């Protein structure tokens, strides 16, 4: 540090850049400001590769599915509390499966719509893939819980759940693409 040249501050009135003007002299030039970059808002995710939208659709489906499943299961718990006899248990189990499938399908449609509407180059295929990923994750969670179903039962359940998730998300992606076309936003692919 001892060998480095020392910086000197400009002397007032010396005419150096940034120094105050001498008395009676011309004012210093105005300070330049950096330009502010503003986005036009027209890109709609165009820079994101299509496979990113599979992950975004997966998250969107989970976000939509969890409250729907909570609502459905709260209603089903009330049904079970009211139906105390053994004859009603079969209809309650059927309602439990049916209403949870409907909740999952609605969430799949919502997540697929998001991918189709805002997905840039992503479309129906990526929407269906996000539904399949959610279905496979839900199946894996149920399998890890260890409910007795047997290997064939678990395999059949995986096929059914992935089919429902993919089909619902595909339909949502298709509706999202139609909505994008109606709004005039071009599709990149």
Task: Find the structural class using helix and strand composition.
Answer: mainly alpha
Main β-sheet description: none
Helix content: 55-70%
Q: For this entry, what is the oligomeric state of its chains?
A: single chain
Gyration radius (Cα, Å) is 30 Å
Count every helix, treating DSSP H or I runs of 4 or more residues as helices. 4
Question: Could you name the ranges where pLDDT drops below 50 across 5 or more consecutive residues?
Answer: none
Beta-strand fraction estimate: under 5%
- What's the β-strand tally? 0
Backbone shape: elongated
Average pLDDT: 81
Distance between the termini: 60 Å
SSE order, one letter for each helix or strand? HHHH
Characterize the structure shown.
- This protein has 189 residues and is mainly α.
- Helix content is 64%, strand content 0%.
- It has 4 helices and no strands.
- The chain has helices spanning 50-82, 87-118, 124-145, 150-183.
- Helix 2 crosses helix 4 (150-183) and helix 3 packs antiparallel against helix 4 (150-183).
- It is elongated and about 100 Å long.
- It starts with 49 loop residues before the first helix and ends in a 6-residue tail after the last helix.
Secondary structure layout:
Layout: H1 50-82, H2 87-118, H3 124-145, H4 150-183
Helix pairs in contact: 1-2, 1-3, 2-3, 2-4, 3-4
Fill in the keyword field for this structure:
single chain, 189 residues, mainly alpha, elongated
Summary, kept brief:
The protein is mainly alpha-helical and 189 residues long. The protein has helices at 50-82, 87-118, 124-145, 150-183.
